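Re-run with default settings, no changes from the original entry. Doing this only to confirm the output is reproducible before filing.
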Amino acid sequence: MMSCVNWSCGPNSNRPTSIIVPAISWMMDGWRRTPPLSVFPISISPGLLPRSSRPHSSPALPEGRFDRLSGRRAPFILETGCLRVGGNWEGDGQSTFQFDSFVRDVGGSVISIDITPDSIESARRACSGATSLILNDSVAALHMLSLRCGAPVDLIYLDSFDLDHANPMPSAIHHIMELTAVRPLIGPDTLLCIDDYNVGDLGPGGKGLLVDRFMKTIRAEVLYDGYQKIWQVLP
């Protein structure tokens, strides 16, 4: 069953205040264990990801990028900003659904964070029990996860705070705050992807303006540079 956790942002809170839908077992253990391990040899087929007719829309990862997760044991994907409307391929790209489909096939897990109850409900309806949902501010939730999870994340996908083309800095600041909060979960070979990077008249930057500057200071390989930007952290 899909799990959905409501995290308190109060100063004295260090655990979920309520579980809206029963959580999977490794969540119930207080995030202290990594998900069960299994070996999977396959990668997602690019043909599985519907293309949008809108030139700025894209699948959750560009074609072929899921193959970077091939061969990893029980891939753990962490996303900020879950799908808003199920089946809306023309707009949102359905990243939560795509990640859920991938890990459901290979035995991994997804955690997606969103501050909007309606979006959490849409994702709950669209995804399987391989995906866990946290209703909270993404920075607060990522900080809590960084204290509770015991291993680096395989893929971090940042796509929460909507980008205002007339004033992109608030979104850029929010996403660098997310990166700061999740930094303890970034290890060798972690993939980091930020959406809405090279956007139309804005050019390179967008949501990832400040994240990009940080990633240039660490050992990270740029795997893709377009509407999204993807890095792989090097050992």
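Residues 169-182 form the longest helix (14 residues). The chain has six helices and nine strands.
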